[in-house]
Amino acid sequence: MDSLEAKFPKYMVYCVFIACIEAFCNGWVIGSPNVPGTVTHICENGLNHVTSKGLPDCLPMNTALWGFAVSSFCVGGLIAALFGGNIQEKYGRRFTMIVNNMGFVIGSLLCAVSVHQAMFIIGRILCGLSCGLGSLVVPTYIGEVSTIKGRGTMGSCNQFLVVIGILLSSVIGLPLAKVPLWRINYAIPAFPAIIQVLLMPTCVESPRWLVSKSRIEEARQSLQQLRGTCNINQEFYEIVEGQLGTKSANMILRDGSSEEKVVKASDNLSLPESSEGGVRPAMSMLEVMRDPVTRRIGFTVLVHHMIQQLSGMNAVMYYSTSIFKIAFDEDFAQIMAIVTTVVNFISTIAAISVIDRFGRRPLLLIAEAGTCIFSVLLVIGYKTNTPGLLVASVFLYVASFAVGIGPIPWLITSEMTPTAAASSVGAASTCINWCMNFLIGQVFPVIFAAIEGWSFLIFAAICLLAFVFTFFTLPETKGRSLESITVTRILKQILKNTVVIYQDDYYKPEDEVPIDETTQLANWDCPESVDFKQFSEKIKYARTHEGKLPEGFKSNEESNVHDGSNLLSPEAAEKLKQILEPFVKDPEAMFVIVDGFMLYWDQGVLEQLDCKITFTASFETLKMRRDKRQGYHTLEGYWVDPPQYFEKIVWPEYLRLNQHNVTVKDVLMIDTDKNSIDETALKVANKLCEML
C-alpha cells in the first residue's frame, strides 16, 4: 500500500498519543483551580489554621490575588510563545517536548508543597511555560508525523486531550477539595509529564523537520517507521519537494531512490533555487505588518484569537463553581461544574465531526451568535432567579463555544496565513491568546465579585461585536484555483480590452463524464471530462473576432465572487500597472485569457496559446484551499465535493496533468508555495511582456 492511502498506522498513532500527553497536562493545569479553588485560598479558621506538618491548610488570598494566581500560568504561556517557535526549529520537535516537561514537573510539585502564595504563583507560571511551549510544538509534531488521510483526526487529538484534562481535573478534584488533599490535585500533572519524558525517546523525530535540516536519510527512516510497511516514495518526494523544491526532490525520488541521490541532494540544499521561483524568506512580524496583504490577514487572525479569550469561555472554565453558587449550594455547584466540563467534552467531539463539513465561517458565526444569546439568557436567569435557565444557558454557551470559537482561530491561523508569514503570525497569535487569557483570569473574578451574573453582559457585547467582525472580514474562499483565478481577474482589471474563457464552462454533460473505478464517482477533474472541441472553438472565435465572445454568453465562473483578487497589495498593483503600461495605453491591444489546469492536454487548445503559464502547489496547500471553500457554481448548478473526492480523484489527476505540463515547451511554472500573490502576479506580467 502507498503511504498516501494509509490512515492510522499503529506506530504513528502511538507517537501522536505520546505527544498528546502534554495536552492532557495542559488541560489539567487549566481546570485544576476550579473545584478545589475555595479550599485552596479561603481558610475556614483564619490564617493560623494549620494541621499538616510544615504545610498550611490553605494559602489565604483575596479575590484579586486569587485571580492573579489562577491566571498567572498565562504569563508563562506568553513567555514560551515568544520564544517557542525558535526553540522547536533549532532543537527539533521531539527534544523540545522532552525538555518541555520540566516546567510541568517542577511547577506542579511547587504548587503542591507551597507554604506561601508566591510559591504557588511561581509554580503556576512554570506550568504555564510548559503549556505555552507545548501548545506550539505538539500540534506541529502531530501535523508533521500524521498521514494525509488521518491528519484531521490526529490533529483533533490535541484539543481532545486538553478537554479530557479539564474534565478529569474537575472529576478527581471533587474528592480532593478538602484539607490537605487539595495539594495532591495540583501535583498530578507531574506524573504524566514524567511518563512522557520516559516514552518520548521511543518516538521518531518529525520527517519534515529532519528534511529542513538536510538530514535526508534520517528523515526517510523516520517516515518509514511512521508508515510501517507502506511504500513511502511518493509521500517522501512530496515532503522534500515542499521543503526544498522540485529539483532536490527529483534528485532523490524521480525514478526510485538511492544513497547517491540523497547525498547529492543534501550537498545542494544550501543553493538557492532561483529557477524555481525562489523561496521567499521568512517574514518578521514587523515585515508582516508592513506588507498590506499580510497585514490584513495578520490583523484578522490576531483579532479572532482575542475574540476566543474575550468571549469568556475560560472565565466559565476557571470559575464555573462560583457561577453556579449564585443559585445552588457549594456541593451542587461543584457537581454542575463537572457537568459543564462533560458538556465541553461532548461538544468538542461534535465539533470534530462537523468542522470540515460545514466550513469555518458558518460555524464561527453560529458560535458567536450562540455565545451572545446564551450569555444574555444567563443574565436573565440570574436576574429572575431561575436556576434552570442559568444552568441551561451555561451549558449551551459552552457548547456554542466548543463548535466554533474554540478550534477555528487555531485553524485559520495556518489556513489564511502565507507560508513566509506563518511563523511570525502564529507566534503573535499565540502571544495574544495567552495575554487575553491572563486578562480574563485576572479581571473576571473581580468583576464577578462586584456584579455577579451581570458580568456576562460584557461577554454578550463582545460576542456581538465578534459576530459583526467575522461577518465582514472572514469570507469562506470559493473557487477552484486561488492563484489562477486571482491573477486572471487582476489582469482583467488592468488590461481593459480583455475577455476570459474558463475551462470550467466546457465540461461534458454528467452522463458523459468518466466514472472513477475506485470511488464510483464522476471524475470531473480528468481531461476526458472536458469538451475540448467546444472549448477550442470558443478560443478561436475570440481570436478571430477582436477578443469578443458570442453575444449573450455568460460564464458560470463569474458567479464565484470570492476570488482573492483583493489580496494584491497596492504597491504590487502599482508596479503591475507600470509593467503592463504599454498594453494599457495601446487601444488596439486585445487579450484573450484562457483559464484552466487542463489547457495543455488538448493540442487544439495548446496551439492557440501564445503565452503559457501554470501554477503548482503541494498536496497540503491544494487540500487546504479546497477545504476552505464550500462549493462553486457550475453549468449544472452548485458543486460541493463528496467525501474523499480530493484525495481519490483531484490529487491523482493533478499529478497526472502536472507530469504532462512539464513536457510542454515554453511553459512558465510558478510554485505557489514559494511565491506570494504579489510575486506571482508580477512574474506573470513579466512573462507577458517577454513573450509579446
Description:
The structure is a single chain. Helix 2 packs antiparallel against helix 10. The strands form three sheets. A two-stranded parallel ribbon has the order 1-2. Strands 3-6 form a two-stranded parallel ribbon. Strands 4-5 form a two-stranded antiparallel ribbon. The protein has 692 residues and is mostly helical. The relative contact order is 0.09. The chain is elongated, with a radius of gyration of 28 Å. It starts with 9 loop residues before the first helix and ends with a helix. It has three domains: 203 residues, Up-down Bundle (Growth Hormone, Chain: A), CATH 1.20.1250.20; 189 residues, MFS general substrate transporter like domains (Growth Hormone, Chain: A, Up-down Bundle); 210 residues, P-loop containing nucleotide triphosphate hydrolases (Rossmann fold).
Ranges with pLDDT <50 over ≥5 residues?
255-280, 476-485, 559-565, 630-639
**CATH homologous superfamily name of the largest domain?**
P-loop containing nucleotide triphosphate hydrolases
pLDDT averaged over residues? 80
Overall, the morphology is elongated
The tally of beta strands, per DSSP, is 6
Count of DSSP-assigned helices: 32
Strand content: under 5%
Transmembrane segments: 12-30, 64-83, 95-115, 121-142, 154-174, 186-204, 332-355, 362-382, 388-412, 424-448, 454-474
Keywords: Membrane, Transmembrane, Transmembrane helix, Transport
Pfam family, one: Sugar_tr
GO molecular function, one term: hexose transmembrane transporter activity
